Amino acid sequence: MANRKISWHRKLLLKLWPWAAFRLFAKELGVANPVFDKAHEIFGDTHRIDLYPTAGTKRGFILVLDLKTALYFYQDGDHFEYDGFEMGEYDKGDVTVFDNIGEKISV
């Protein structure tokens, strides 16, 4: 990667208003802001995110937000796709989930 200089304007913007800086950078790169605005709205107010591998025959994972909402993702070829959500009370996840990635956790 080329060695690039960052202007002091951009450095100041990143330091004082990082959300505005990333919005500007995304606009310059042609990234769809509404999608990321929605993602930030969901994850920005979330205090806890737990990750569980799915149990069963389908390969996937579950993101649990604030122990109340589960987002399901399943493998489709070489990527994962969102499959839906459920609401309820969930247990705390295992923060070492990536240490034993082959081990499945049932929720």
Topology of this structure?
Elements: H1 8-16, H2 18-29, H3 33-44, E1 49-53, E2 60-65, E3 69-76, E4 79-87
Helix pairs in contact: 1-2
Low-confidence stretches: none
As a percent range, the share of strand residues is 25-35%
Structural class: alpha+beta
Q: What Rg is obtained from the alpha carbons, in whole angstroms?
A: 18 Å
> How far is the N terminus from the C terminus?
43 Å
Main beta sheet strand tally, sense and closure:
4 strands, antiparallel
**Helical amount among residues, as a percent range?**
25-40%
Number of helices: 3
Beta-strand segment tally: 4
Total discrete domains: 2
Strand line-up of the largest beta sheet: 1-2-3-4
CA-based shape: elongated
Average pLDDT: 86
Written as H for each helix and E for each strand, in order along the chain, the element string is HHHEEEE
How is this structure best described in words?
There is one protein chain. This protein has 107 residues and is of the alpha+beta class. It has two domains: 7-45, no CATH class; 48-107, no CATH class. The protein is 31% helix and 26% strand. The chain contains three helices and four strands. The chain has helices spanning 8-16, 18-29, 33-44, and strands at 49-53, 60-65, 69-76, 79-87. Strands 1-2-3-4 form a four-stranded antiparallel sheet, with no helix packed on it. The longest helix has 12 residues, at 18-29. The protein is elongated. The model has no long low-confidence stretch (mean pLDDT 86). Keywords: Signal. Residues 1-26 form the signal peptide.
